[in-house]
Amino acid sequence: MKQRSSYTIYVTFDQMCEFDSCNLIIATCNSLDRLDDWLLPAARQFLKEKCFGNEDERKKRTCLSFSGFPASMEKLEDYILSHGPLVQYVSVSVDKHRILAPTVSGRSLIEMLLDALAENHLNKFSWGGRYSSRDIVIIDYGRGAKHMKILQQAVPEASKDAMVKDLRTAAKLFMPHYMEDNIFPVFFDDLKQKLETPTTKCIGEKWFMDSLSYHPALMHSSGRRCFHTMLHNIYNKHRRKGSTDLDIMKMIHPAYPVNWKERVTYAKKNGNAFLDKVYNYEPPNEKNTDRYGVTVGELMRFIRNVFQHGEKVEGQCEECLADLELFTAKTFCKLLPSVLRTLLKEGLTQNYFREAWELYRASRSDKTDPWSNRSHLRTDSKWKRPCFVWQL
User: Which domain of life is it from (predicted)?
Assistant: First the structure.
């Protein structure tokens, strides 16, 4: 200030984030329009203690300039409390058991976390796992643009071991918020495992960060359903053409080695014959007593048929497609994460499956809830916090 002979105090948001004072940063962000009332007198007193100017000049010329500050900022714990439950129970029309799924707020919170980690890891920055929930804030830049920031200083040119620790800390801090009755929402078991057990070989790679940032656990039901359908259509097209430059079937098949038909049989034995009805929707022909094979391609064809024929089998309307998708996601919970990871790792989303990938990725921005018009809020005394129960 002396060098500039200026009475203006300049403060930027990035400068303030360098100091370990989360409460001060939040108070500043949330009271920018009132700073002159309480901070300007303190600034004048500061200049007086530094013998800068005289009393009249300090009173008339002192001013504050804040730049880069968001509209508001919340601590992680305050954000969770103010944005309602992160998970919800869904009573789907095709199963007698309720299915746990994330709410819109629950999906958004994990999205912000993974975006923050990806941005730093792709630029070789890391905290080495040395951050806690007290260091995490949610920043609102206005017009619906919210981001997560870890106020601890990230280290440049970080090692892959340090990045691994970041993901493990993220799982430790966030995953417990999504557990209800000792279970996780659909696909969250897989997401938790990927955060807890990354390898130094894949950490920091774009395909790996994409597999987390666009994990099926975060995606809208309609996006996952569309992706399933397009996967089968594209896969089937290249299989019929007999592609010689890439054996797609061999690359995808290891992603889901389990005999998926056992899941259909198991569901029927436990009183749910819905999948079995779809499986036998059209009788087998004389040459083949079984309409489906055991490959991943055949499972994708079966799931496509669930979406196509499911509402006919159960007499449901088109609006219940979200129920069908959620039920198949629960039944074949390892399929989509594994196939997506394989497609990204092998670079298939850049050619054969590019259109499907682009539409799937765009669906992450859909913040609607397909079950919102059939919900009511109850308080679960066991957990001492509100949770949603969806009813048909």
Answer: Eukaryota
- Residue 308 inside a domain? The answer is yes
Residue with tokens 């083949």: 288
Same domain? For 169 and 53 the reply is no
Range of the domain at 361: 221-365
Q: pLDDT 10s digit of each residue in the chain, 392 long?
A: 555 566 777 888 877 777 666 777 777 777 777 767 777 787 788 888 877 778 888 777 778 777 778 878 888 999 999 888 999 998 888 888 889 999 999 999 999 999 999 999 999 999 999 999 999 999 888 777 789 999 888 999 999 999 999 999 999 999 999 999 999 999 999 999 999 999 989 998 999 999 999 999 999 999 999 998 888 888 777 766 665 445 555 666 555 656 788 888 888 888 888 888 888 876 656 565 677 877 787 888 889 888 887 766 555 555 688 889 999 999 999 889 988 998 899 888 888 889 999 999 999 999 888 877 654 333 343 333 434 333 32
The last residue of one of the domains, among 215, 231, 254, is: 215
Is the same domain home to 154 and 183? yes
Indicate yes or no: pTM above 0.85: no
CB 121 within 8 A of CB 155: no
Domain stop point among 164, 186, 215:
215
The Cα 176–Cα 106 span in angstroms is: 12
